[in-house]
């Protein structure tokens, strides 16, 4: 099973608050364009809801 969906994106969920980052949607309000891979988001980026780091995110099924 591929970790990517048919649309070419993946989803990453915050283990602290449950917020989900969808690669296909990006986060334009924070300057992250749609289609931006999780690996390409800066290491110092923080969850927009709770402020935790990327270390507290896990890939989740869409």
TrEMBL record:
Coiled coil: none annotated. Keywords: Electron transport, Iron, Metal-binding, Transport. Pfam families: Rubredoxin (PF00301). Its cofactor is Fe(3+). InterPro entries: Rubredoxin-like_dom (IPR024934), Rubredoxin_dom (IPR024935), Rubredoxin_ET (IPR050526), Rubredoxin_Fe_BS (IPR018527). Residues 9-60 form the Rubredoxin-like domain. It comes from the Bacteria. Involved in the hydrocarbon hydroxylating system, which transfers electrons from NADH to rubredoxin reductase and then through rubredoxin to alkane 1 monooxygenase. Belongs to the rubredoxin family. This is Rubredoxin. It comes from Streptomyces blastmyceticus.
């Amino acid at each position: 099973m591929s970790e990517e969906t048919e649309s070419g994106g993946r989803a990453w969920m915050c283990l602290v608050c449950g917020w989900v980052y969808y690669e296909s949607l990006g986060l334009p309000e924070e300057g992250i364009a749609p289609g931006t891979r999780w690996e390409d988001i800066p290491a110092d980026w923080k969850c927009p809801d709770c402020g935790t780091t990327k270390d507290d995110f896990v890939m989740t099924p869409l």
